[in-house]
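During the reporting period the student researcher (J.K.) took over the structure-prediction task from the postdoctoral fellow and processed the backlog of single-chain submissions. One of the processed entries is reproduced below for the supervisory committee.
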Amino acid sequence: MHLLARVDPPTLHPTVLAVKEGAVRLATQPIVNRKEPLDAQHLKHLAAETNLEDLLQLRNLVMFILAFSGFLRSSELCVIRSRDVQFNEGYLTISIEESKKDQLREGRSVVIAESSSITCPYSLLRLHMHKNQIPENSDEYLFRAISASGNRKGLISINKPISYSSYRQSFKKSFANIVPDISSFKLSLIQLGQVHGATLAASSGVSERNLQRHGRWASVAAENIKVKDSLASRLEVSEALSL
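J.K. obtained the following structure tokens:
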């Protein structure tokens, strides 16, 4: 209407624009005390120290490695049942019953490759299920509270998933002697590997669509928050200028 009346719009006045820019700067607070993500070396350290005959230690290790490799949130991980897991030749598939971040509507299952490492999600999950006598394709939750009788430990018989508070306590206890300051590591950022795992994948040339689908992120913007560019990838821009 201002333009039709041949009057300059007030929103384009230099004073208005300057006030807007100042307000944006004031409202933008620097991020302090940013929590750190775990990385693969932390998990390998935990795996090396884990007594696989101790069912509590084994359960915790499997939970964190699955969370890392599958970019799983605690709300997704804790409710996985045996029937949600399918072991295939060289990889496993985990069905996610509900994923509120799944914008592509294609990320209701996660595929995780088998490896020869001590942190192989495939072999560790199979070991966890075998030692706890969890039948395949059953309704049993994979991660439940642990009961102890003397020197023997095992998953409780009640088919109830582990609580978030127990998951969090297990996280703190497992990594307390591995990381310098456990308080600087935020559990919700794991989803263990949503930061570091996504960064590794992006640096290895994994496509943006595959990253978004694997992480079941709501948008590319959400992905960009979680993926930290490596120094090498950032240098590619200036190197491409041939200056």
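The committee noted the following: The longest strand covers residues 91-95.
J.K. will present the remaining backlog at the next meeting.
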